[in-house]
Write a structure and sequence with these properties.
9 helices, globular
């Protein structure tokens, strides 16, 4: 759990319910393929964040995804065939037009961007408002072995850390005069290389350190039994929302199968 969020309303919700909420939003994000259902799903996630008092912290941690979102939008807009909206290379005499940005590509780009938010915001909220021990116990309830539960929790905790490091590395590269948004699609992809290389190396070094610490503390010899208090009203409210979302997702699947 992130320090400074101890008073969040989501802190009181059972870890099992929050895990179910994350799984339900992820499943719905995969099933919904139109912008409006995804937008409504994202709105419901934002409502949960607002009621839990973590929207500001969540948006602050998502700032590093802005560059990635721009790249995704350009990739889909430039690679999907369809009716061109405009050309990146205009008609100049015998040259052009080239690199069309299509209407279908714009729609795919919007869906991809909405899915990025739908997949990333719930997991950030769960990580920020749940103790690691509660997350591990919640995963064990879903019949995951302790080793796998710990591995997943550690990986999830790396998400906000990686987002923060992404922003710090990008600022450091800008201070050194490195252009992160060069002209052209290849230039934008090349601008991300000086960020992802140190980010990957830092992640490998951190994983190695965590593994050594667990080995020194004798983690493999410990016994762990999950214990939970009875569900409070806030947990029941979120649980009923999860049930409604799963029902809507199932109805969408059945409609596609039989329509």
């Amino acid at each position: 759990m992130i320090s400074g969020l101890e008073k969040s309303g989501l802190r009181q919700i059972d870890a099992r319910v929050k895990i179910l909420w994350f799984l339900a939003t992820t499943l719905a994000g995969l099933i919904f393929v139109e912008p409006w259902p995804l937008l409504l799903l994202l709105a419901s996630i934002i409502v949960v964040a607002v009621l839990g008092g973590v929207l500001g912290e969540t948006l602050r941690r998502l700032r590093s995804l802005v560059l990635l979102i721009i790249v995704f939008g350009l990739i889909f807009g430039l690679t999907a065939p369809g009716r061109p909206l405009f050309y990146l290379v205009p008609h100049l005499g015998s040259i052009g037009p080239a690199l069309p940005f299509t209407q279908e590509g714009l729609a795919l780009g919007i869906v991809a961007i909405l899915r990025i938010f739908v997949f990333s915001i719930p997991i950030l909220i769960v990580i920020m408002t749940t103790n690691n021990s509660d997350l591990i116990q919640g995963l064990i309830v879903f019949r995951l072995p302790l080793e796998f539960a710990l591995m997943i929790v550690l990986a999830l905790n790396f998400v906000p850390i990686a987002l923060n490091e992404f922003g710090r590395i990008a600022d450091a590269q800008k201070a050194r005069g490195h252009s992160l948004l060069e002209k052209g699609l290849i230039g934008k992809a090349r601008g991300l290389v000086p960020i992802f290389i140190p980010l990957t190396l830092n992640a490998i070094d951190r994983a190695d350190t965590v593994g050594k610490v667990l080995e020194m503390r004798g983690f493999a010899r410990r016994q762990f039994r999950p214990e939970f208090a009875p569900l409070q009203l806030s947990s029941w409210v979120l649980l009923w929302f999860v049930v409604a979302l799963l029902g809507l997702t199932l109805a969408t699947v059945l409609y596609r199968l039989f329509s």
